[in-house]
Amino acid sequence: MSPHAEEEDATNAYQSLSETAGIDDPRWAFGSGFEDVEAEIEAPLPAGVDAADLAEYCLMLGDDALVCAQRIAEWVSNAPELEEEVALANTALDLLGQARVLLSRAGHVEGAGRDEDALAYLRSEAQYRNVALAERGDDLDFGVAIARLLVFTTWRLALMSRLLDSRDPVVAAVAAKAVKELTYHREHAARWAVRLGDGTDESHRRMQAGLEAVWPFVEELFRTTDVERRLVAVGVAVDPADTRAEVDAVLDQVLAAATLTRPDRAPMGLLGGRGGRQGVHTEALGHVLATMQSLARAHPGATW
Questions:
Q1: Mind listing the GO molecular function terms for this protein (predicted)?
Q2: For residue 25, what is the DSSP state?
Q3: pLDDT tens-digit profile of 79-89?
Q4: What's the rounded Cα separation, in Å, for the pair 62 and 99?
Q5: Residue 274 forms beta bridges with which residues?
Q6: What pLDDT, in 10s, does the model give residues 282-303?
Q7: Domain 50-264+276-298: which CATH class?
Q8: Which of 27 and 205 is assigned the larger pLDDT?
């Protein structure tokens, strides 16, 4: 269940989708979790922070969550059991909520008149700033899906825990909410990894194969961009390299409990020194965006 479940009316499955919590724009009912969204997004730029750098950083964090949420949502109607389908849907919605606020903040800070919808639906692959792990498909193989979720949530939780003290109030607010959500997401993925890894010979084989499939994408998580370096210097961002020790320790603990072996795979290479943070992606992102953006592009400007 979602960590927010106790706040909802258990007899009304659609309450969280229909209530606006006092917000004028009812669309904010879908996953943002902020009581005063506009005030959060329009918070003043911290002194000494470059607007373009902050917008780019919000896109990085927001795109990671948005693209991964889209990938996880592919399991709706495909999960091995109904309870797991609900759990994965809730995980995707939590990440989508993070993405919405971060993309809205990016649009506000850059001052180009682009809102969350424009940034989500009208950008090309080269304009996305997510890490490749988020876009990596799983061909509906549950072992690959759990391996991706375990690595992604372990890394993102370590990152968000350090962003609680960000000088940007929106980044800090997103981090505060995300830490609670990601703690649940990581635990959920870890439990499945142990259940599969320490289960039957077949489940062990497939969970190990899932790790092997996602491991080439791990190294990129700890690469630091020039934008991140500049924002670290002014107290807004976190150097992703600083999360490596924590991520490794958590993964080692889970893999040991699951009787799984840390893969020995070469990391995915860069193209001219550029990767997902610079807009160079795998072909998988094109498939994600084709699905995610098709309706908005077919009916530009439509509202419902």
A1: phenylacetyl-CoA 1,2-epoxidase activity
A2: S
A3: 999 999 999 99
A4: 4
A5: 271
A6: 999 999 999 999 999 999 888 8
A7: mainly alpha
A8: 205
How far, in Å, are 54, 55, 115, 229, 250 from residue 110 at the CA level?
Answer: 8, 6, 10, 19, 36
Q: Which residues does 301 contact at the CB level (< 8 Å), separation at least 6? A: none
Which is nearest to 217 in space by CA: 128, 283, 152? 152
pLDDT of 3 reads 41
Q: Which two tokens stand for residue 187?
A: 């635990």
263, with CB counted inside 10 A (0-12, 13-18, 19+), is middle
CB 101 within 8 A of CB 174: yes
In this prediction, residues 28-50 reach a mean pLDDT of 71
pLDDT at 25: 43
Delimit the domains of the chain by residue range. 50-264+276-298
CA distance 86 to 98: 19
Tell me the pLDDT band of 147, cut-offs 50, 70 and 90. very high
Give which of 7, 17, 135, 6 is closest to 65, Cα–Cα: 135
